[in-house]
Amino acid sequence: MDTAELLETVEHETGPSPAWSVLWLHGLGADGNDFAPIVPELVRPDWPALRFVFPHAPVRPVTINNGVPMRAWYDIRDMNLAQRADEGGVDASVAQVEALIAREAARGIPASRLLLAGFSQGGAVTLAAGMRRETPLAGLIALSTYLPMPERLAREVTAAAPSQPLFMAHGQFDPVVPHAGGDASARALRGLGFNVDWHAYPMAHQVCGEEIRDLGDWMGARFAAS
Where is the Phospholipase/carboxylesterase/thioesterase domain (predicted)? Predict the structure, then answer.
């Protein structure tokens, strides 16, 4: 594996010799530091040692922001969810995520002990990557996001993908990714066989304490089931 092609990351280990990894993708215009502060709020004393990996998305021009370059997992050309995702950008980001998953395997943490998480744009890439996995991950976490390229991904979903537990959460007053879009994505994924644990909160495009608590409960169940 050519590590020179890997995205730069911020990493945090909760203990020596991590037994699990959590690969967490940030939203548009942020970077890998954005969700690093969530670690102490989320982690519980009875959990196994974890390695949190927060990659930085590449810098690219973003059409809806007047072509200004910023960290983005794909270009956004239209606010309409049906046309929002740049398919080539999504595909490239999925390949970069797969390279990071392969690096975790090389470091001793297989797919069965890796959780893939993402917020907003990062969540869309998480869903796209998860639907194409031939080897299931321990779980998928998609926050304040939507299913990109739904018709194409419905054709590409692997037989193994729906076995991955999926946590989805959304703000009821989200002005960036409307709640209705997240809810429709969850229903579409259920229709493809995914076991979706769906949560909605009275918030905008953000995370909240109740959401972190519910996510912690869900992650704890994944660790206990291993």
Answer: 21-217
All residues at 6 or more sequence positions from 186 whose CB lies less than 8 Å from its CB, including other chains: 168, 196, 198
Contact 119, 25 (CB under 8 A): yes
- CA-angle at 127, arms to 121 and 128, nearest 5°: 90
127 token code pair: 């869903």
Tens digits of per-residue pLDDT, 136-186? 999 999 999 999 999 999 999 999 999 999 999 999 999 999 999 999 999
User: Which are the catalytic amino acids?
Assistant: 120, 174, 205
Q: Where are the domains of the chain?
A: 3-225
* Residue 3 confidence (pLDDT): 40
For residues 164 and 189, what is the distance between their CA atoms, to the nearest angstrom? 11
Rg of the chain taking only CA atoms, in angstroms:
16
Cα distance between residue 100 and residue 102, in whole Å: 5
What is the C-alpha separation between 24 and 137, in angstroms, rounded? Answer: 13
Read off the pTM.
Answer: 0.96
* SS3 state of residue 151: helix
Q: Which CATH superfamily is domain 3-225 in?
A: Alpha/Beta hydrolase fold, catalytic domain (3.40.50.1820)
